[in-house]
Write a structure and sequence with these properties.
The complex is a heterodimer of chains A (564) and B (155).
Chain A lengths: L2 E3 H11 L4 E4 L6 H9 L4 E4 L3 H15 L3 E5 L3 H15 L4 E7 L15 H5 L5 E4 L6 H13 L5 E7 H5 L1 E3 L19 H13 L3 E5 L2 H4 L3 H11 L3 E3 L14 E4 L6 H9 L2 E5 L5 H4 L10 E6 L13 E4 L2 H15 L6 H13 L13 H12 L3 E5 L3 H9 L8 E2 L10 H11 L4 E7 L10 H6 L4 E7 L4 H10 L15 H7 L3 E5 L2 H14 L3 E6 L26
Parallel strand pairs in A: 2-3, 2-4, 4-5, 5-7, 6-7, 9-10, 9-12, 10-11, 12-13, 13-14, 15-16, 15-17, 17-18, 18-20, 19-20
Antiparallel strand pairs in A: 1-8
Chain B lengths: L2 E10 L4 H11 L3 E9 L5 E10 L1 H13 L3 E6 L3 E12 L4 H10 L2 E6 L3 E8 L1 H11 L6 E11 L1
Antiparallel strand pairs in B: 1-3, 1-4, 2-3, 5-7, 5-8, 6-7
The chains are: A alpha/beta (564), B alpha+beta (155).
């Protein structure tokens, strides 16, 4: 075996792993690697205009495809810019490998130019990280990084490679299989526990499926659909699980939690059994813990044992890969569960739905953000991937967009990262080029990574950005309205760029719309042109996201309307 | 209810592994009362003995979170164990060394060094007895006391 430099190894490892695209940004410490990228055409490299965007793009790619996303950045500021992306992926369990350059080994610890303790910084926001000490260990580390990122509870892995290591020569034997003595995720669920869980379901009167992001990561939505369909047990979805069930599934009560539907939140509050499939009981879902699902026994299936029982007592814990567990559980449930048993319960929940459906007051004078999202849904449901930034527009999208399948909705849940949407949507477009990639954003969020318009135009990643522009940091403004006596401290964004000209200056297409007709025209035009677009939609400044459970409140105490 | 626990963690000997463990405690606000580390002879592993305290739920999370770390091979939550801790102290030579020596012997120890102006003593015993020893030592005006932290082994 011919010897290779560390830099060559990095490029060869990408080939071994079948990586088709790397998002990144070069710099001093990673130049050797970039020099190799220049020589080979194993994968496409997409130069973003900010490292944070590179990592979000890799993240969006991973969320849309289920494959491991990859980003390259340089040392020091290159790496620190990438940290928000790592933390975002970590909170939402997204498989990703981020490779950073580091100053040469001999200079580590000397406060050298562009030196930072990268592994020290990434430790708390990655599943695992490595500082590579020699080219010899590089192939093994890279193989382990990919393996760790995609197996078990997925997550981002960071590999920090000193510049001299990328120049060192060593043998390249890429491991065909990774075996780590210290890391063995549990895949199969405990058979006895599964049996007990099935019995609990069969004996419950008011069960509810509490569907979480683990369903998406484990690709088990089909099994979940089968289970829900057969048992006719009502289901709620977390933000991260949107799309598990079709929007028009009669068993779907909608999203649960802070901005969940009345029926979903009441179902959780009144249930006698929660069948939690891959959620992590986030505080945005549970509200006040002591009041959360007070009457319910809880079945919790999760691949991460530390997720189970972290916040609430679980009666039937099942550790394992959700898909493997469901493969055992579904046939047993089919044999034992009688769907007619839950009829009375379904009726109660239907009545809740009729009593307080998800709704808003439409207007002909001013565009309502909810209408815009519904409209996008009418035109594109099932044909587009929808990314969002973070804020009101994100919640409205989660509430009103008619999701039809998993991986259709790409959003930063756990960390709530503004600036995520647009670069992620670029990654989505690269991952599923045949589908339309839409980023729904706010006028606050979009400015956090708007420089990526250049990347999208350069690499022909025709993302359509729909900005629900209310001249506010809308969600913070909403909280100020409800809880701070309308003291709108630093949330007024009336001072704005001309988004249309901004888009045009980057070589994209811009639209500013104020009416329904204008919106339809702009969206149709953007879709037919297939270019990078930005639709600046002027919406009602004071629209609030409702229902709302105030932070720390109990799920059954929802603000259903707000009258000024 | 707050409980004291002794946890042994077997980890791969690789750089940064101790930071991963202590970082986990720091980031989640868990308490470390004492921590000892040493390589396990003839293996690529090290053994950490951590004394911690918290509610049952916190202890359970600590164990699960430790398991989650990639270089962690095994986490042993001791129930039936032998615990020992070592202490060394510097006693001025003016003190009555015969009494000091008698005290040391009562706690599995002795005088290990006598210098120009102080004697160095050591004792190794159960942590609670070491605490008694340290308080009994006070009347000999120790200049410096160094405790090792706990090591433990299953019975």
């Amino acid at each position: 075996m011919a010897k290779m430099t560390g830099a060559q190894m990095v490029v060869e490892a990408m080939r071994e792993e079948g990586v088709e695209v790397v998002f990144g940004y070069p710099g001093g410490a990673i130049m050797n690697v970039y020099d190799e990228i220049y020589k080979h055409k194993y994968f496409q490299h997409i130069l973003t205009r900010h490292e944070q965007a590179a990592v979000h793009a890799a993240d969006g790619y991973a969320r849309a495809t289920g494959k491991v996303g990859v980003a390259f950045v340089t040392s020091g500021p290159g790496f620190t810019n990438a940290v928000t992306g790592l933390a975002t992926a970590y909170m939402d369990s997204i498989p990703m490998v981020v490779i950073s350059g580091q100053v040469p080994l001999s200079m580590i610890g000397t406060d050298a130019f562009q030196e930072i303790d990268a592994v020290g910084i990434s430790r708390p926001c990655t599943k695992h990280n490595f500082l590579v000490k020699s080219a010899e260990e590089l192939p093994e580390i890279l193989a382990e990084a990919f393996y760790i990122a995609r197996s078990g509870r997925p997550g981002p892995v960071h590999v920090d490679i000193p510049k001299d290591v990328t120049a060192q020569l060593a043998d390249f034997n890429y491991p065909k299989e990774v075996k780590l003595e210290t890391y063995k995720p549990t895949i199969k669920g405990n058979a006895r526990q599964i049996k007990k869980a099935v019995e609990a379901i069969a004996n419950a009167k008011k069960p509810v499926f509490y569907l979480g992001g683990g369903i998406i990561h484990s690709n088990s939505a089909e099994l979940v659909r089968e289970l829900v369909d057969f048992t006719q047990i009502p289901a709620v979805e977390t933000l991260m699980a949107r799309g598990t069930l079709r929007y028009d599934d009669p068993m779907l009560l909608g999203m649960v939690g802070m901005h969940g539907t009345y029926a979903a939140n009441m179902a959780m509050s009144e249930a006698d059994l929660l069948i939690a499939l891959g959620p992590r009981f986030d505080d945005r879902v549970t509200g006040k813990l002591s009041e959360f699902a007070k009457y319910a026994k809880i079945i919790h299936v999760d691949i991460d044992p530390s997720s189970i029982g972290k916040l609430v007592h679980v009666d039937y814990p099942i550790v394992g890969d959700l898909k493997a567990v469901l493969e055992e559980l579904v046939p047993q449930a089919k044999a034992k569960v009688d769907p007619s048993r839950y009829e009375a319960w379904r009726e109660i929940l239907n009545r809740y739905n009729e009593l307080h459906p998800l709704t808003y007051e439409d207007s002909d004078e001013v565009l309502k953000p909810e209408w815009v999202i519904q409209r996008v849904g009418e035109k594109l449901k099932g044909k587009a991937r929808i990314s969002t930034d973070v804020g009101q527009h994100q919640m409205w999208t989660a509430q009103y967009y008619p999701f039809t399948r998993p991986r259709e909705f790409i959003t930063s849940g756990g960390l709530g990262t503004m600036g995520f949407g647009f670069p992620a949507a670029m990654g989505v477009k690269r991952g599923v080029p045949d589908e339309i990639s839409i980023n729904i954003s706010g006028d606050g969020s979009i400015l956090m990574n708007i420089q990526e318009l250049m990347t999208a135009v350069e690499h022909r990643l025709p993302v359509i950005n729909i900005i629900l522009n209310n001249n506010y940091l809308g969600m913070v403004r909403q909280w100020q309205t409800f809880f701070y006596d309308k003291r709108y401290a630093e949330t007024d964004l009336s001072m704005q760029p001309d988004f249309v000209r901004l888009a045009e200056s980057f070589g994209g297409v811009g639209y500013r719309v104020k009416t329904k007709e204008e919106f339809d025209k702009a969206l149709d035009d953007a879709i037919s042109k297939g270019v990078v677009a930005l639709i600046d939609v002027v919406v009602d400044r004071y629209e609030n996201v409702l229902p709302m459970v105030p932070a720390g409140g109990s799920l059954y105490n929802m603000l259903l309307e707000y009258k000024d | 209810m707050i409980e004291r626990r002794v946890i042994s963690v077997i980890v791969l000997n690789e750089h940064g592994v101790l930071t991963r463990i202590t970082g986990l405690f720091a980031a989640r606000g868990y308490n470390i009362e004492s921590l000892t580390v040493a390589p396990i002879p003839g293996s690529k592993y090290s053994r950490l003995t951590i004394v911690t305290s918290g509610s049952l739920r916190v202890i359970e999370q600590i164990i699960k979170q430790l398991h989650k770390l990639i270089p962690v091979y095994k986490v042993i939550e001791h129930t039936d164990l032998i615990e020992k801790e070592m202490v060394m102290a510097k006693i001025p030579l003016e003190e009555r060394l015969a009494d000091v020596e008698a005290l040391c012997r009562a706690y599995n120890g002795n005088i290990v060094n006598i210098g120009q102006d102080s004697a160095i003593i050591m004792a190794a015993d159960e942590p609670s007895r070491i605490a008694n020893f340290v308080s009994a030592l006070k009347r000999f005006n120790p200049k410096e006391i160094v405790r090792s932290g706990v090591v433990a082994i299953e019975r």
